[in-house]
Specification:
The protein is α/β, with parallel strands linked by helices. Helix content is about 40%, strand content about 10%. α5 (about 105-130) packs across α6. It is found in: Nucleus.
Length: about 350
């Protein structure tokens, strides 16, 4: 029997299936600047999408924090208990000064944002099935597995989203992960090593972290890239292999890990893809999914430069311009914009609505 969760509460049809919460952003007296990660990038993506008038406060879905019960669907109790040690969190997030801070601060300032993004990914899984597509503006913690974090990933949101779908949504029995972050997604690979229901395609720089050989056994379509791979070769491979993966097995859901650390100049990714190349890549994957009528959930994952947020926003706007996402999700409600702006904090009907 499934535990009771807030993450599958019904969401009004007036909301776009774009999931976000201001709590995603990590602000911590400047400590977050010690990691090459732009820890406010998620809020910046939303800011750009609002500026372009694609979204407004009221018509996106407000993420909820994953509870301990939610996390235990995948994580071991022992692993979650280890996160109560600042030293462990400092190691996982690669922010050494965290080990000097009391854990209640680490929980509030670092782990709660990551738990809220994880809740967002789980919510977006259900939304994708309901609407055909969904985007969590955060998430994509693909180095974390049930009992081990690393590489800034403390919770296994991709594994969780898929397990929730398998357990709670009828007819969900096959998932495909298309992982296009510059790094190998060894977390979900470890979790699904022996699970025939999950097909993993992973395309990554073969020379960088994590180089997890045993996890690679879970990859059904492995595309290893060399240093400095550029747009033309890269996009050709994305098209060939995402089409190939979806022709090989037709899943009930695609989880697309859309890391932007493939961008030229990324200090960790080591690839040389242009901003336009990233926008085109996302379009190729969405087109492959939409053409086959397979629901797709996108998470934003790694991307370690200040200009990353603008590129993610541009990519989402391009998906809309191409007709691959957007207002068709809003059809059939005909409700006033006032109602829209009141209703997107995904309460079950009759629960709290955020006032205008």
């Amino acid at each position: 029997i499934c535990h009771r969760t807030e993450l599958y509460s019904s969401v009004p049809r007036t909301c776009l299936p774009i999931v976000y919460h201001p709590d995603y952003n990590i602000t911590f007296m400047g400590l977050e600047k010690l990691h090459p990660f732009d820890a406010g990038k998620w809020g910046k993506v939303i800011h750009f999408l609002k500026e372009e008038q694609f979204i407004a406060d009221g018509n996106i879905v407000e993420a909820r924090e994953a509870t301990e019960e939610d996390l235990l669907v995948v994580h071991t109790k022992r692993y979650l208990n280890r996160l109560k040690w600042s030293m462990v969190v400092a190691t996982i997030t690669e922010i050494p000064p965290l080990l000097l801070l009391p854990n209640f601060l680490v929980q509030r300032k670092v782990l709660r944002p990551l738990r809220t993004q994880t809740g967002g990914t789980i919510m977006a899984g259900k939304l994708a099935v309901d609407r055909g597509w969904a985007i969590n503006v955060g998430g994509g913690f693909h180095h974390c597995s049930s009992d081990r974090g690393g590489g800034f990933c403390a919770y296994a949101d991709i594994t969780l989203a898929i397990k929730f779908l398998f357990e709670r949504v009828e007819g969900m029995s096959r998932a495909t992960i298309i992982d296009l972050d510059a790094h190998q997604g060894n977390g979900h690979e470890r979790d699904f090593l022996d699970d025939r229901r999950v097909f993993i395609m992973d395309m990554y720089n073969r020379y960088i972290y994590p180089g997890d050989e045993s996890a690679k056994r879970a990859i059904k379509r492995k595309v290893e890239l060399d240093w400095g791979t550029e747009d033309s070769e890269y996009l050709q491979k994305v098209e060939l292999h995402s089409e190939g993966a979806l022709n090989e097995v037709r899943p009930d859901i695609i989880v697309y890990n859309a890391g932007t650390d493939i961008l030229d100049g990324d200090p960790l990714g080591g690839l040389s893809i242009s901003p336009q190349g990233i926008v085109k890549r996302d379009e190729i994957v969405f087109r492959a999914a939409r053409r086959r009528g397979i629901p797709i959930l996108m998470v934003t994952s790694g991307g370690y430069q200040k200009k990353t947020a603008r590129i993610i926003a541009d990519s989402i706007l391009n998906l809309q311009q191409q007709g691959l996402i957007g207002a068709e999700a809003l059809e059939g409600e005909g409700s006033s914009s006032l109602v829209t702006s009141m209703m997107c904090s995904s309460g079950s009907v009759g629960s709290r609505f955020t006032a205008v």
